[in-house]
Amino acid sequence: MLLANPRGFCAGVHRAIETVERALDAFGAPVYVRHEIVHNQRVVADLEKRGAVFVEEVDEIPLGAVTVFSAHGVSKRVEADAETRGLATIDATCPLVSRVHTQGRRFAQSGHTVILIGHVGHAEVEGTLGQIPGPVHVVATVDDVKTLQIPDPDRVGYVIQTTLSVIDTSDIIAALKARFPLIKGQDTRDICYATHNRQSAVIELAGQIDVLVVVGAYNSSNSNRLREIGEAQGVPSYLIADASALQKSWFDGVRAIGLTAGASAPEVLVEETLAQFRQWWSELVVDEVAGRLEDVQFKLPTMAFGLSPKAG
Ligand code: SF4
User: Fold this and answer.
1) Which of the listed residues 35, 163, 164 should we mutate to test ligand 1's pocket, taking the one with most ligand atoms within 8 A of CB?
2) For 268-305, how does the pLDDT look when each residue is reduced to its tens digit (9 = 90+)?
3) Residues 6+ apart with CB under 8 A from 104
4) Ligand 1: which atom is nearest the Cα of residue 94?
5) In terms of DSSP bridges, do strands 31-34 and 66-69 run parallel, antiparallel, or are they unpaired?
6) Residue in 151, 189, 186 with CA at minimum distance from that of residue 172
7) 3-state DSSP assignment of residue 289
8) Annotated active-site residue in 21, 48, 83, 124
9) What is the pTM for the complete model shown?
């Protein structure tokens, strides 16, 4: 058994969870959170036990209540609705997502048509669409690029959903450059380091394993990408929300298992998965790949702890 490294929580997820915890400490329960703070049911359930209340829309939140926006970011409309309701908001949007918003706005303000490489319906994409003025075209495949209708092909800019990374967008970017030779791209420093590192770790692991298990929520974009990358490397790959989803038959005739976790999956889920494996195979040997060191940390939201909750 080989454990991928790095795996699991990234700096943006740590920051978002700590933001809710600090808000609960500072203001007491309930603290409202718009959307799952990160896409993981275990994280959500643990915070619910402490008094966080998760909602999908701000109109479900009592007037004036303390409210955290999730790591995925929100649209300008959501920000305006929250202000109208007098909510004491704390924005846990990952700073790397905020940079995508800023870059998209810069393109739009300089007269460029903005293309967002991402998946329609994902919370981050919905937030980004609502942060950029004017029309934004979302593309998820090379075929989507072929059908784009752009008023001025010489003034186009693209940004990328953070959980896709350069590895799985390279074909789409190549197709965009072929169709729009003057297209401007997102600054590569804005590509999410955590997504890139977790995907690279799976690619490095792939040559040494017969099957890959990814621990992560089924609605977690980056976890799904890790499973897809395993498959693309020719390794049968499974995404599990937790150890209860494992099926022993996946490992028939297998000599080496690879295990990783999406950026929103807590390490306890990896430990529970290992415990299930050990229950099945007591002689299991677990090695952790050396991997790339991550020392990225993001400051907590600045407004977070000077706020006084308004009366609800
Ligand atoms: Fe931020 Fe990247 Fe983590 Fe998403 S995966 S929360 S963009 S650090």
Assistant:
1) 163
2) 999 999 999 999 999 999 999 998 999 999 999 965 44
3) 114, 116, 128, 131, 132, 136, 157, 159
4) 1
5) parallel
6) 186
7) coil
8) 124
9) 0.94
